[in-house]
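Researcher: I'm preparing a figure for a lab meeting and need a structural model of a single chain. I don't have an experimental structure, so a prediction will have to do for now. The sequence is pasted below. Please return the structure as tokens so I can convert it later.
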Amino acid sequence: MIKKLRIFLALGLVVVGSLVLVPLQILSMKTRLWPETVILKIWHKMILKAIGLRVHVKGALARERPLLIAANHISWTDIMVLGSFVDVKFIAKADMEGWPLIGMLSRLQRTVFIERERKRTSGDQASEIAKRMAKGDVMVLFAEGSTGDGNLVLPFKSTLFGAASMAIAEGAADQVFIQPVAIVYTRVHGVPMGRRHRPMAAWIGDEDLMPHLKVLLAEGAVDAEVHFGDPVPFSKGSSRKETARLMEAKVREMTQAALADPRPSR
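Model: Understood. Here is the structure written out token by token.
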């Protein structure tokens, strides 16, 4: 009964809050009366509050520009976790655009949708990301190309770093900075999740969204950690494969450190 009540109240908060914030976000996008990310941060924080997800941060977003974030990917909640406290834009797979709520939220924060299976469109997509970085947008790349269970970092796909090469090739920048970021879900109700229970926070592959959302809403009180590594310059002579391996190693190192010694819940 308590869990059902929690789900009802959480969904009610999201619906009522969205009815207020969506028009304000559309207004900011059309008029630029205030920065677009102001409303987005409020929206992300509201969703995290409804879910019961607390965010702990180690390090900070790099100041260098153009900047590409290379992060691991565990769930759709990764977007809210990052978007709640930093000014970033996201790169997401194309089918997310049609998802209820998440698709709308993605469009309202100018997400770049990419079709990873269609190589013919990859050049245009990389060019769009490169242009956005050249304009000052910090783009978040979930470099595994899929979601994992939170226990391991999957191999980073070097092809997804094509936007950095494109930005340099098109003359938008002499170099692009790439910053590794680890997103780790560590505790539930203050207790370390452990390998067995950590997938509770994960949304993997073709798993249906609503059952996963109900579990997350019913449980609540989940802790997530975001660890920022040092940015690495990517220039004309840089190798995408070597950069992908380096970012993967750094994200894996930060992930394992967070899992081994999770921060206290508060």
